[in-house]
Structure formats: structure tokens, C-alpha cells
């Protein structure tokens, strides 16, 4: 593989009659305010004020990987599109600023050198061709005259935000402050500063241009550079590879449509899912477990081995993302039938526990159900046992999940690769046996259960305690269909009690679930009066509490006894 690498200025890059195009498989523009602020700060710091005026220092902004022969008009940008896009925005904004204060010829000349070119026949072309799904960038940035245009996509919105920010940065008030000017800034001074900024960008801003003859060689260099620290995620690399391979764009760009559909689905709910997280968990349902860092390496190995086809892989990613978001952020409407209520309850519980290591297996579990090799009863039973395990293991005991994620990954892969119902059940039972062997001891569980706290100023366990009471309530009613519409947590011994340790008052033995209205009425100190108010509650656990507490006094000893009783019952019965 032959290639050339040399430092070049933006002038050498953009002043020639060439068009740099960004292929469709590249990630979309993604710079945020922080990225632009950082670049702008570096640019301003590269301008030195001397007695005779301003001088510019050289500033390198990284590597630009290009594919195409020297005599070609079209040059493919394989890496560096984010920086090239922002540089185009900067030059365009500076030209518009000059044009707006009457420096028309200079503005037009600069614009037609670096932003817009013309071929020998007078046909105009954009020096940077983004080839995006809309014309927003061309209208907003690549014309000297401003246009009224509305963002049509998420990328368009990011482009608008970036260009608006840059236009503000090159405005007279901003530059006055940055260059330490006082009084009214004349147009002559403003023009001087704008030209200094243009000189800096086109003559002193440099990139390492890496030229190769074809995109395959360029992509190899691109991968090597990213392996050595350029800020692209493994999923960006996977996207580039898949979209490059699946090149069909007629009648629509199917690959990009599928990819955008995945992103949209994963961000469609209250809890959005990162594309990287989903891709790793999805990968684990088919191939050996890998870390985020090694994801692309694992992908490339399977790709080179012929085990992945771009169209099939992307289609499967697309088809499974809805199941995944239902696992992570479940809605009751996802499982509307009465006999599916347990599915929603268990997934909602796992969301409360904030545990993710089982998600690859859960995805395989639902895919097995969709394929018809797993009955709903087995699915529900498995989800309940996984819920119970992680309640004890993670939410209560906070144990280290050494080896568990690998066990889930192995089971997920095995379940995905079988089409036999018996083998599917055996795989699930083997996993559940492994989990049961890692169940915390009763002594450890009760000790940690006693440490649950909910008081004003310490509410980190609030959702978990609410979940516990709902679970107890369902157990007492012998029905998983119970769903409270109004649940607040009542402190039996009031939080205002000054002579009692706050840890005693906040422990679960001193807590009851009540409706919001009754909780407000029970905000009194006298225990006998509280009990009368509690009698209005519909909760079975409150009814059980009243039946067991016949005294008119509630003491720290009562709280400790009830906490231990609830803990033992949770371990041996409700979550067993």
C-alpha cells in the first residue's frame, strides 16, 4: 500500500479545483458547543499581538485521510470530516461578516476560493460535498447570501447550532472582548481582525494530509489511526464498515435508513439507550463476549472470516432494537394482555435495580420467545427468578458480579444459536442453577436489608423501598396484578422525633406504604392516633401491621424486630 503523508495548509487543501466529498457511511456531524469552544480558544491563542500588529502561529488540527488520485476532481474524505466541516463554517461566517459591512469583493473572492468553486465551463460546485439526506448545510453555510432554512434532521439541528455559535463568535462584540479592545470598535478595526482570523485559518492552520489511491487503502489507514487514539468509537467504525459495504441507495438509502431507525428507537423512551451499549449486548447474543474497547476488533475478526454480511447484520440490529428498548425502559402497553403483566413487573423491577449485565441474555430470551421455541410461562418464570436474584445480589447486598456477566453472555449466545425447545429450556435452567448457587447467604441478606434507609435528606433507597412494599403487597394478595396508583412512604415513628437515632427512624421496619392523603393526615406523633388513621388504608401490609401491633406505643425495639421480620420473610418467602 502506497500513500503520502504531508503537512498542508487549508489554503493548499481548498484553493485547488477539487471537491472533497463525505461518503454516506461516515458518521454525521456531531460537534457540540464544547468542541467548537475548544477549537476557537486554540485559534485565538495562536494570534499574538505585537507592537506592529498581529502575528499568527502555526496550529495543527490533526490528520485528514483522503482517497483518490492526484488528478481526480472528486476526493473522498475518509477521516477528518468533522474538522473540515467546522473549518468550512468558520470561513463562511468570516466571509459573511466582511460582506455585511461592505467589504464585498474580498468576501466574494475568499468565499469563491475556499467554499465555492467553478470548473472551466463555469459550473459552480461546493468544495465540501457532505452528501447528506437534506440540503440544509448547502443553504445555511455554502452560500454567501443567508437563506431562511429549517432543520430537517438531528444532524441539521447540530449544524445550525454550530454555525449560529460560530457566527456569534466572529461578531464584533465577541471579538472586541477577546482582543481586549476598549471603546467603540470601528469597522476598520473589525475588518482587520476578521482578516487576521482568515489569515490564521487558511495560511497557518495545518493538517497532516494522508493521500492514498483508493478507499480500501484509506480505510485501512483510517482503522490504524483510530486504533491509536483518534476519537471515533467502535460503533462509529462498525457503522462506517457496514454502510460502506451495503452501498444500495436506490430507491432509498436502505442502510442509512435502518441505522437511523435504530438510533431513533433507542432514544424514543424515558430512559434512552446508547448505541454502543446496545451494539455490545446484541453482539453478545451471537458471538463471544467482548468489552467496549475490543468490540471493533471482534467485529473485524468475524467480518474478515466471512461470518458477517452487511445487509443481514444491520437488518438484525434494526429488528431487535425494539425488543431491547422494551427490556431497558418497559411500558405497560408493551404487554397489554392480563397474562403478560408479570413480564412488565419483572422488567420494571430490573430497571429499579439499575442492573444491565443480564440484558444480552434477556434479548436472547425474548428472541427465543418470538421464534416460538420458548413458551410464555417459561419466559415469565425465568424473568421472575432473574428479578429475585438481582434484588438480593445487587440491590440489597451489593455483591461483586464476578463471572456473572460472562455466564449471561455464554447463555445468551447458546440460546440464540438453538432452534430446539428442549435445548432452550436446558440452557435457561443451567443459567438459573448457576445464579441460585451465587445467592447471598441469609445472614448477609438480613444484615444489608437492615441498612436500607429512607429519611429526608437520604432518599437514595426510596424507589427500592417502594418496590419492596409493592412486592410484599402482591404476595399478601397472591396477585401480581396489583399496581398502586398512589403510594407514599409513612414513617410510623415520626422523623421529627428528636431523641431517636435517625438510622432507626429511616429503617424499613419503621415504614409503611400509604396513600398520599392518609400520609398527610398521619403526620402526628401519637401512635394510637396514627393507628386509627391507618385503618383507612387499603394496603394489606398495613392491615397486617395493625393486626400484629396491639400496643399503643411504638419503640426502637419494635422497629428493629419488624425490620428483621420483614428481612427474613423477604429472603425465605417473597423473593425465594
TrEMBL record:
What the entry lists under Pfam families is as follows: GmrSD_C, GmrSD_N
Stored InterPro entries = GmrSD_C, GmrSD_N
Start and end residues of each GmrSD restriction endonucleases C-terminal domain: 440-567
Annotated ranges, domain GmrSD restriction endonucleases N-terminal: 11-242
Record protein name field:
DUF262 domain-containing protein
Which organism is this entry from?
Answer: Alteromonas australica
Amino acid at each position: 500500500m502506497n500513500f503520502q503523508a504531508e503537512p498542508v495548509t487549508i489554503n493548499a487543501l481548498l484553493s485547488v479545483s477539487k471537491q472533497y466529498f463525505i461518503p454516506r457511511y461516515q458518521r454525521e456531524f456531531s460537534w457540540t458547543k464544547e468542541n467548537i469552544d475548544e477549537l476557537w480558544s486554540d485559534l485565538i491563542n495562536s494570534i499574538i499581538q505585537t507592537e506592529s500588529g498581529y502575528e499568527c502561529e502555526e496550529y495543527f488540527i490533526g490528520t485528514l485521510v483522503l482517497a483518490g488520485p492526484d488528478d481526480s476532481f472528486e476526493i473522498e474524505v475518509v477521516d477528518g470530516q468533522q474538522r473540515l466541516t467546522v473549518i468550512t463554517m468558520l470561513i463562511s461566517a468570516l466571509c459573511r461578516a466582511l460582506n455585511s459591512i461592505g467589504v464585498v469583493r474580498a468576501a466574494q473572492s475568499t468565499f469563491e476560493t475556499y467554499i465555492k468553486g467553478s470548473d472551466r465551463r463555469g459550473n459552480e460546485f461546493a468544495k465540501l460535498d457532505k452528501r447528506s439526506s437534506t440540503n440544509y448545510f448547502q443553504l445555511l453555510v455554502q452560500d454567501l447570501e443567508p437563506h431562511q432554512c429549517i432543520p430537517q434532521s438531528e444532524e441539521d439541528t447540530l449544524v445550525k447550532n454550530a454555525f449560529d455559535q460560530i457566527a456569534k463568535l466572529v461578531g464584533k462584540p465577541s471579538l472586541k472582548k477577546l482582543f481586549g479592545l476598549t471603546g467603540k470598535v470601528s469597522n476598520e478595526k473589525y475588518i482587520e481582525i476578521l482578516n487576521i482570523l482568515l489569515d490564521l485559518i487558511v495560511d497557518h492552520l495545518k493538517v497532516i494530509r494522508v493521500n492514498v489511491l483508493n478507499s480500501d487503502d484509506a480505510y485501512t489507514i483510517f482503522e490504524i489511526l483510530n486504533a491509536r487514539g483518534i476519537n471515533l468509537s467502535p460503533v462509529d467504525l462498525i457503522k462506517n464498515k457496514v454502510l460502506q459495504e451495503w452501498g444500495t441507495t436506490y430507491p432509498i438509502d436502505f442502510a442509512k435508513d435502518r441505522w437511523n431507525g435504530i438510533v431513533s428507537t433507542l432514544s424514543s423512551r424515558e430512559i434512552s439507550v446508547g448505541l454502543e451499549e446496545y451494539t455490545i449486548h446484541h453482539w453478545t447474543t451471537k458471538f463471544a463476549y467482548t468489552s467496549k474497547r475490543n468490540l471493533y476488533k471482534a467485529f473485524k475478526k468475524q467480518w474478515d472470516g466471512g461470518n458477517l454480511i452487511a445487509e443481514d447484520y444491520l437488518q438484525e440490529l434494526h429488528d431487535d432494537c425494539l425488543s431491547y428498548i422494551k427490556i431497558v425502559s418497559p411500558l405497560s402497553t408493551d404487554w397489554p394482555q392480563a397474562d403478560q403483566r408479570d413480564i412488565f413487573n419483572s422488567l420494571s423491577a430490573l430497571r429499579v435495580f439499575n442492573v444491565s449485565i443480564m440484558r444480552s441474555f434477556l434479548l436472547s430470551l425474548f428472541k427465543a420467545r418470538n421464534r416460538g421455541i420458548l413458551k410464555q410461562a417459561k419466559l415469565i418464570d425465568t424473568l421472575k427468578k432473574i428479578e429475585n436474584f438481582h434484588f438480593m445480589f445487587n440491590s440489597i447486598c451489593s455483591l461483586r458480579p464476578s463471572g456473572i456477566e460472562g455466564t449471561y453472555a455464554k447463555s445468551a449466545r447458546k440460546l440464540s444459536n438453538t432452534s430446539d425447545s428442549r435445548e432452550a429450556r436446558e440452557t435457561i435452567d443451567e443459567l438459573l442453577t448457576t445464579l441460585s448457587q451465587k445467592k447471598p447467604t441469609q445472614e448477609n441478606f438480613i444484615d444489608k436489608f437492615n441498612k436500607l434507609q429512607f429519611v429526608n435528606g437520604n432518599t437514595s433507597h426510596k424507589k427500592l423501598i417502594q418496590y419492596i412494599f409493592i412486592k410484599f403487597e402482591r404476595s399478601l394478595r397472591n396477585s401480581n396484578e396489583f399496581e398502586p396508583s398512589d403510594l407514599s412512604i409513612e414513617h410510623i415513628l415520626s422523623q421529627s422525633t428528636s431523641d431517636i437515632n435517625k438510622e432507626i427512624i429511616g429503617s424499613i421496619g419503621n415504614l409503611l406504604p400509604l396513600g398520599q392523603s392518609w400520609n398527610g393526615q398521619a403526620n402526628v406523633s401519637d401512635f394510637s392516633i396514627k393507628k386509627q388513621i391507618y385503618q383507612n388504608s387499603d394496603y394489606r401490609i398495613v392491615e397486617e401491621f395493625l393486626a400484629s401491633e396491639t400496643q399503643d406505643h411504638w419503640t426502637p425495639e419494635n422497629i428493629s424486630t419488624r425490620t428483621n421480620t420483614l428481612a427474613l420473610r423477604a429472603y425465605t418467602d417473597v423473593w425465594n
